[in-house]
Structure formats: structure tokens, C-alpha cells
Design brief:
5-stranded antiparallel sheet, about 325 residues, 4-stranded antiparallel sheet, mainly beta, Neuraminidase, globular
Length: about 325
């Protein structure tokens, strides 16, 4: 199942053959600006042929709980029902079937949040579900595999986490699973490809990370894979389609990035593709819809933006 990840509000899309193949002149195409307030640290998910983006924080410090739907066919954003509960930023989102979920983060009082909501597309309504099973946190990652949702890693202002939790929508219960390796981290990237989950990059008190891990829910085990080839960073954007993962942008403590990389789980290899078409950024959101890949929103040196760019991110190994 394609996955969506924490970020902001500028969107860029990949249009070629499920984002696999050969880059056509390395193009990134700007799409309709996100129609809500410019923000950072939004959450998003994909249901069917639509993407949903919401929550976050504006440059003036206002926290948000709105939700917007993007239709890639019409290239139009439509506001949907606000999320219930607290306004928040640095939350995570994922989708299971025809329901979307957003949870964790922190609110305008600086309190870490455990609450977790379910969005029903058919009724355009939110239902509060069981609180996240771990401690309240920000900058976690989330994805879904085979009808279950997963949230893990993140931070609590003082330290980071490597715990990992599974959500069962049928029982509305959280179950703790195996920790994500031995390294605490927040602001990592997570996505799922087929029946496996992946988490990598991020940061902790010891610095920035480029390690990359694969989760197998059938055995509840994590296996370390090839390090992310773009170098250590946090607050990157990532997403997946049915067969490949994508990771790029982010912050390494001194510089913002705009490079983008494709991960092939069959060969456990990273290949650099065309640089992101907008400016270098961190805290962007990546998602895929109907095989097309998008990057939306971001922060770039004290700027919050709401542009949307579309790129035909087909695989092109760099030569020489």
C-alpha cells in the first residue's frame, strides 16, 4: 500500500509509469497550490485515487486541524471536515482500506498528543479511536501493511524513541511490536512496499542518521538494509508505490537538500534520480496516488510554502 508521511504543504508529482523507468529530461511539473493555509509539519494519507493532507502549523504559530482532499485528475484541492480533538502539528497519517488515520503530534500548548482519529471518506466525518499505545510524541512515522497500521519512533522534546506499535482497526487496539533497531530517532522517513515496512534516516542527540531498516510483520522482526545513499539527514520526505520507495530532501544540520533517491527492495540498492523540482527543503510530505508520486509543502529557511510540484520521477542512475 502506498504510504504518506509527515511534512508541510507544497506538492510535487511524479507522472511516469508508477514512478519507475527512465527520467524524461528530469522534469518536475508544478501542480495546483495547496488550497489551505501555508504550513509546516502536516500529515497526510491516500485513499483510492485521492490524497488527503491536514493539520500542521502556520508561520504565525497557529496550529491546525483542517483536512484537504487532492484530486490529481482535476488538479483541485477541496476542503473536507476538520479533524476532531486538538489542533496539532508533527502528527502522522496512514490509510487502511477506505479510512484514513491521523494521530500523535503536539498542540499549541506544547503538550505531546496520543489521540488518534479515523476519517471516513463516505460520510466526510471523523471518529475518535483508541489513543496511540505508546507515549505522546512528535515526529514519528506511520504506514500501513495488510490491514494494520503502524506508528513508531519520534521524540518527546528531551529524547527520542525506537518503539513500534501496531493498530488493528477491527478491534480498535494497539499492540507493541519489536523496536526499530537499536537507535533512537525522530523525524525519520517511513513507508511500506508490498508486505514490508521501511524506516530510515532521522536524528537523535548523537546526530543525523542514514541507516535504513525493513520490517516483516509476519515475523515481527527488523532487518538492517543498505544505508540511504544520499547521506545522513532528518526531516526528509518519502513515499512508495507498489514496488519502489523514494526518499529525498531534508536537513543535515547545516544544509537543506533537494536530491531524490529510489530504493529497490529486490536488490537492496539506492539509485539517484532527478533532483526535486522546487527549492531545497525539509518537513515536506510525500505520497503516491494511482501510481503517480507527489511531494507537497515544506519548510525552507523560515518559509512555509503551499506550492505543489509534479515530477516524472522515473529511475535514472547517474553516470560518471
Amino acid at each position: 500500500m502506498p504510504s504518506i508521511h509527515p511534512g508541510t504543504e507544497e506538492v510535487i508529482n511524479c507522472l511516469d509509469d508508477n514512478c519507475n523507468g527512465i527520467i524524461d529530461e528530469g522534469k518536475w511539473i508544478q501542480k495546483a497550490n495547496f488550497a489551505g493555509s501555508a504550513r509546516v509539519n502536516a500529515a497526510s494519507f491516500t485513499i483510492g485515487d485521492k490524497a488527503y493532507l491536514g493539520t500542521g502549523k502556520t508561520s504565525s504559530g497557529s496550529y491546525l486541524k483542517d483536512l484537504w482532499e487532492y484530486d490529481p485528475v482535476t488538479n483541485v484541492w477541496t476542503q473536507k471536515a476538520d479533524m476532531g480533538g486538538k489542533k496539532r502539528c508533527k502528527a502522522v497519517g496512514f490509510a487502511i482500506g477506505n479510512k484514513g488515520y491521523i494521530g500523535t503530534g503536539y498542540d499549541q500548548d506544547g503538550s505531546l498528543i496520543k489521540s488518534f482519529g479515523e476519517y471516513d471518506v463516505a460520510t466526510n466525518s471523523w471518529t475518535q479511536k483508541a489513543d496511540f499505545g505508546g507515549s505522546g510524541r512528535q515526529n514519528a512515522v506511520g504506514f500501513a501493511i495488510n490491514g494494520k497500521g503502524y506508528i513508531g519512533t519520534g521524540g518527546n522534546f528531551l529524547t527520542q524513541h525506537n518503539d513500534f506499535w501496531e493498530y488493528d482497526p477491527d478491534t480498535n487496539q494497539w499492540t507493541q511490536k519489536a523496536n526499530v533497531g537499536d537507535t533512537l530517532r525522530e523525524a525519520a522517513v517511513g513507508f511500506s512496499i508490498g508486505e514490508k515496512g521501511y524506516i530510515g534516516t532521522g536524528s537523535n542527540s548523537n546526530g543525523y542518521k542514514n541507516d535504513f531498516w525493513e520490517y516483516d510483520p509476519t515475523t515481527d522482526t527488523w532487518t538492517e538494509k543498505s544505508d540511504f545513499a544520499g547521506g545522513a539527514r532528518s526531516s526528509a520526505s518519502g513515499f512508495s508505490n507498489d514496488s519502489k520507495g523514494y526518499l529525498g530532501t531534508g536537513w543535515d544540520g547545516s544544509s537543506l537538500h533537494k536530491d531524490y533517491w529510489q530504493y529497490d527492495p529486490l536488490t537492496d540498492t539506492w539509485n539517484q534520480i532527478a533532483d526535486f523540482g522546487g527549492t531545497a527543503r525539509a518537513y515536506a510530505t510525500g505520497f503516491s496516488v494511482s501510481g503517480n508520486c507527489y511531494v507537497a509543502t515544506r519548510r525552507a529557511i523560515h518559509q512555509e510554502m503551499r506550492t505543489m510540484i509534479c515530477g516524472n520521477m522515473i529511475l535514472l542512475p547517474l553516470l560518471g
